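Table S2 (text version). Query chain:
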Amino acid sequence: MDLRMDSEDGLVVGSPEQMCGQFHSELMMQLPQWRQRLSERPGSFREVEEQIGLFYRRGGAMVAAGLLAEVSRLPATRQVVEELEQRAEVALRPPEKRSRRVQLWGGLIFWITTLYCGPRERTGQGRGKQGGGVYVELAAFGFGKGCSPAVQSNVARQVALCPSLQLARQELERQGLKLDVKAVRRIGEQTGLRLLTARKRDLLAWREGKVPAGSELSGKRVAVQIDGGRTRLRTNGPPSRKKGKRRSFTTNWREPKLLTIFELDERGRMRPRTRAWIDGTFAGPDHLAELVAFHLHRMGAATAESVTFAADGAPWIWDRLPGIVARVGIPPDRVHEVLDFCHAAHHISLALTAFGIPETEHRPLYLEMRRQLRQGQWRRVVSDLADMAHDELAESEMQREVNYLRRHGEAGRLSYPTFRRHRLPLGSGAIESSIRRVINLRLKGNGIFWLEENAEAILALRAAVLCERWDETMDHVSASMARDNRLDWNWEAADLTLPPVETSNSKPPSKSVTPGPSTD
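Corresponding structure-token output:
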């Protein structure tokens, strides 16, 4: 691998020592300018300090380039490159040398002459299912398309965190990386799609039994919470036949579905200084359910002390829990199902409103029934509401609310005193917070709408940032894409709406009970 700095005819990069010397000479030339500016304007210290930091970022990129040039010539690196060629998922042609422009973290541009392997079965009529070729030497170091791993990681991280691409570009420029908005968009979206592709490969490997169960959750008390948000997706219409006329499109609301998995402390809350796992998808409920089962398996939930599922009353959640438990292999007597208390209480209020209770009587009656519900007297609450609704039609709104509470009570999801006694969460506040932080603060807003694949990519990136697993996620993605750089992230979900299995909702973990209906 041959590196040249700044242009194809620029300085040849040989070693990190050479680059250190080059940086030192540039530093000695720059130092008088900083000294003069600061002596003339003492108040400019902030600007000088920031310029020094950017200058040292450039120096860091020079040293990294020197290390890259030196290590690429080592026999051990050659062996890694040959193994990548042999283990590639796509049959490759013999390598040939090509020159490529690459940007490193710190803003430096390098021209690299490196080995390129094209797909062996390419016909010359486009890429086809074999995808593009592989720069095997760059793949061994985790490079993407025209940028280093650090550039990919930091650009994608800013795209996920900042409220717009323009602000992400400005923040990157303050860090010494000058890119236009199109480049920021391209790198961010490609990194997100790479993450989704790696996730799909892991999930398919799990289906085939190739992913061993982990131990992260072994022996711990675990909470799983699921919910959905709202985001507008863009659907493009047919191209316009009139020259210069913009393409029409429609924007419809879609429900991105999110999950969070975390360890519980002695009070039934998220244990401090632990990291929750957050993931989600814009696909259907079966896709989200399969993701829940996959993450629980690879984190070792089958050997957890207890697993508590907490959510609102959406039927698509509760219908799939038995299938998730069966796929993961969690003992039924360790599973608890909790209907979020605030949602349950809200349905009491809706029932009273539907009955037409006067405002002066509504709140005292609601507070009394809410107290009874929290004390586990859900049968009394349902009975009182049913007596009030005995003259209502079966399809009436009040009867629907009564049936809602009755079904969840019979399923054991309203046993709040038992949940408190076993130090389990009574609500789903963690997933509500995740919906706000992951979806609402980035993907939802006035005038914001997304193509589905872009929204899916940003959702995955932002979830990885907020659950504080960014670096390990990026390392895993680089390793996966080094073997196969084709982007293919869609998958057909398995149907997890299996017959109900025994769960323990109102008894200690050592005992088993048979719940009632598991749907709304």
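Notes on Table S2: The CA atoms of residues 102 and 146 lie 4 Å apart. Residues 499-520 have pLDDT under 50 and may be disordered.
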